[in-house]
Amino acid sequence: MPFSSFQDPADLQRAQAALDEMWRRIRPIIDEADQPRERDRLVYLVASYTLAAHDEDDLIERVWERYWQR
């Protein structure tokens, strides 16, 4: 579980909120067959950027940019 390493509840909350928002944006444009894989990829991206981001908006921006770099 990628978010299990977060010690601070605020980090966990920020990560979950960013993940929910990113998935809301991305899910409609992903083929249904690819959705589980892409959501997992998104989870790992959010987890990797959470501690480096200043706030939820910064986290979303960083993950959004990285998500589209394949």
Features:
70 residues, mainly alpha, 3 helices, 64% helix, globular
SSE pattern, N- to C-terminal: HHH
The residue fraction in helices comes out at 55-70%
Largest sheet: none
Counted beta strands:
0
- From the N-terminal CA to the C-terminal CA, the straight-line distance is 23 Å
Quaternary status: single chain
Q: What form results from the Cα inertia axes?
A: globular
| Coarse structural class | mainly alpha
Number of helices: 3
- The overall pLDDT average reads 93
Whole-angstrom Rg: 12 Å
Catalogue the unreliable spans: none
In percent terms, what proportion of residues is strand?
under 5%
Question: How would you characterize this protein structure?
Answer:
It is a single chain. With 70 residues, the protein is mainly alpha-helical. It has helices at residues 9-26, 35-49, 56-67. The model has no long low-confidence stretch (mean pLDDT 93).
Any chance you could write out the topology, listing elements then pairs?
Blueprint lengths: L8 H18 L8 H15 L6 H12 L3
Helix pairs in contact: 1-2, 1-3, 2-3
Quick structural gist:
The chain is an all-alpha fold and 70 residues long.
